[in-house]
Every structure is written in structure tokens, then in C-alpha cells.
Amino acid sequence: MSSYPFEHLEKVYSQPFFDLIQQARNVYLQHWQNNEVQLCTLLSIKTGGCSEDCAYCAQSARYQTGVETEHLMSTDEILEVARRARANGSTRFCMGAAWKGVREGTSAFDSVLETVRQVSKLGMEVCVTLGQLTDRAAQQLKAAGVTAYNHNLDTSPEFYSQIVTTHTFQDRLDTIRAVQRAGMSVCCGGIIGMGETVADRLRMLEVLTNFDPPPESVPINCLMAMPGTPLEDQPPVDVFELTRLVATTRIAFPRAKVRLSAGRSRLSREAQALCFFAGANSIFYGNRLLTAQNPKADADHELLRDLGLIPQQPFSDSPPPAAVLAE
After folding, report:
1. Is 169 helix (H, G, I), strand (E, B) or coil?
2. Is 222 annotated as catalytic?
3. Does the annotation mark 54 as catalytic?
4. Orientation angle between helical segments 135-144 and 169-182, nearest 10 degrees
5. Looking at 50, 188, 222, 275, which residue is catalytic?
6. Whole-number Å distance between alpha carbons of 261 and 48
7. Is 188 in the active site?
8. The CA-based dihedral angle spanning residues 173, 234, 220, 240, taken in that order and rounded to the nearest 10 degrees
9. Annotated catalytic residue within 40, 92, 187, 188
10. Which pLDDT belongs to residue 58?
11. Which of 92, 201, 250, 259 is catalytic?
């Protein structure tokens, strides 16, 4: 039985708005007392040409979105971006490849493993999102120095087939279990604004509460309706609905980092401040998120300074990987 069954999540989510965000704030203060925000940089190391049909994604080869297919970046190219990210204050470096999944023994995967080894030496947390994984691939990534693997559920089990048909919700869960068996932290959340109901959002959270151990971080993405995708006409997410979900996520996952992810470029400073108050304590930082726009670094530093928030140091709430300890 989940620690937060759907009925309980629905009751939490549906309470008066100010009661909800105050409850979430109290939970946050019990577990996160230093006004810290984790700054993450996300780099697309292999863009476009994906065989999957995720309805929200501009990188699918099935849609005419104007995104050009690019080759896998070299280790040196990625290291240059990683060093720049670290100099700008990022403490977690995330690398994403537009793949259905990892193919073990290929030169592409071997290149990614070497890149992870080199990036981990910079002292940042290393996160990758590469699609589906086998147990062996997960173990290889862990040994190379990956500290967290991102694999979002996207939405509820019931709504999932309306968003993706080329893989199943169970496929997502199987990869997450492989990640956990390998000893990597799980970064797993979803996307809102795809036409799902509030019940779908809460069902997604209910599934997440059944993870053992729970997710280390929970990204909350607002759909960036990309031209050429099936969801291009979806309206923006209501700010109060976003804040309610952030607050409910904080209450359900007291020790997880709740990350404001895609869609933050459309949020005002005031809306972001409301989400931080409600328990968000991680952001993607830099000018781009894969193929979508993201607020500029200077604007983020100014916002955090105005709110009295400070960047979290790497590994401050978890041990560094062996590759870093050996340095």
C-alpha cells in the first residue's frame, strides 16, 4: 500500500489554497533549513531523430518540428559545456540523448560512459537521461560515476497511452527498477498541461510514492507546446494549478528535491517565488532546456538573491560517487 494513496493526495491537493501552501512550507522547513536551491544544467548531447512518438516532444522523427537531427557530441565538447556550467554555479550536470534506450556495447554508449567518467571528475553531481535501460547498462552507468538517472513517468498510467504509444508505462517502471537495483538515485516526475486531469496528476504522484526508495528528485514540467507536435495547441498551465501540484509534491516527498523544470520561462518572478514558497528547491539553470527556452542565468541569480535563496553545494545531502571520492 502506498504511503500516500490517491484519496489522501486528493484531500491534500483540494484544501484551500493558502492552507495547502502553508502546510507545504511547514514540511519544507522541517527538512530543508538553509534556503538552498539546487542549480542544474541540462545539455542535449544527442538531439533529434528519436524513433518514439511522445506527443509533447519536438525531437521525435515522426513530427515536422524544425529540430535538426544531430550526432552525439564528443566528450571534449561536453566537457567544455560542463566546465562552463560549473563556473556559472551549477552543481548538477544533466545530459540527455534522444534515444529510445541504451544499446550496450556500441561506440555511442561507450562514448557516453567515458564522458560521464570525465564529467564526474569536475566535482558536480552527474545525471543522465538516455531512455530505457537494462540492468547491465544501469550498472555500467553507475560504475562510470552517474549519481542520478532521470526517467519521468510523464503522467498517470491511465492517460499514458494517449501521449505515447511506442512504449508502455510499464516500460518506464522497468527502467526505474533497473536504476534502483544499480544503486543510482532516481529523478522522476512528470509533465502537466498535456490535456490530463488533476486526477491524472495525482495518480502519477501516487505511483511515485510507491517507489522504494522514493525518488531523490521530482521534476515538475509544464508543457512547452512545440509547433509541429500533436500537443502544439495546448494552453499554458494555470499558475495556481502548478503551485498546488508543487505543494502537494513537497508534502508527499519531504526529502526529495522538487524541481521547477520545463516551462519556467513562461512563469513570472512572482509565480516562481510562489512555487519556491510552496516547496520547490531545484531548478534547471541556463538558457536552454533540450530544445526549449529557459530563463537566462543572470536573471536566475537575481531572482534567487532577491528571495534570499542560495545555491546548494554538490553532494550536500548525499555522498559523492566513488569516482569523485578517488580524486
Report:
1. helix
2. no
3. yes
4. 50
5. 50
6. 20
7. no
8. -140
9. 187
10. 81
11. 259
Residue with cell 502506498: 2
What integer pLDDT is reported at residue 31 of this predicted model? 93
Residue 57 annotated among the catalytic residues of the structure: yes
Is residue 225 one of the residues assigned to a domain? yes
Cα–Cα separations (whole angstroms), residue 164 to 52, 60, 156: 8, 11, 12
Surface-to-core class of residue 55, CB atoms within 10 Å of its CB (0-12 exposed, 13-18 middle, 19+ buried) = buried
Which residue among 25, 40, 84, 94 is the active-site one? 94
Alpha-carbon distance 25 to 222, whole Å?
Answer: 21
Helix (H), strand (E) at residue 224: none
Residue 118: all three cell numbers together = 570525465
pLDDT in tens, the chain (327 residues): 357 899 999 999 999 999 999 999 999 999 998 899 999 999 998 887 677 888 888 877 777 776 777 788 999 999 999 999 898 888 999 998 888 778 888 999 999 999 999 999 999 999 999 999 999 999 999 999 999 999 999 999 999 999 999 889 999 999 999 999 999 999 999 999 999 999 999 999 999 999 999 999 999 999 988 888 988 889 999 999 999 999 999 999 999 999 998 888 888 999 999 999 999 999 987 654 444 445 566 888 899 999 999 988 887 776 555 443 333
319 within some domain: no
Chain centroid to CA 264: how far? 13
Q: Is residue 314 part of a domain?
A: no
In a domain, 315, yes or no: no
Q: What is the DSSP letter of 283?
A: E
**Known active-site residue 25:** no
Indicate if 259 belongs to the active site.
Answer: yes
3-state secondary structure of 117: helix
Catalytic one of 54, 188, 222, 275: 54
Instruction: Quote the domain boundaries for residue 180.
Output: 6-308
57, 188, 222, 275: which is the annotated catalytic residue? Answer: 57
**Predicted TM-score of the model (pTM):** 0.90
Of 150, 104, 152, give the one whose Cα is nearest residue 126: 150
Could you tell me the CATH number of the domain that includes residue 13?
3.20.20.70
Please give the tally of structural domains in the chain: 1
Q: What is the pLDDT of residue 320?
A: 59
- Catalytic status, residue 264: no
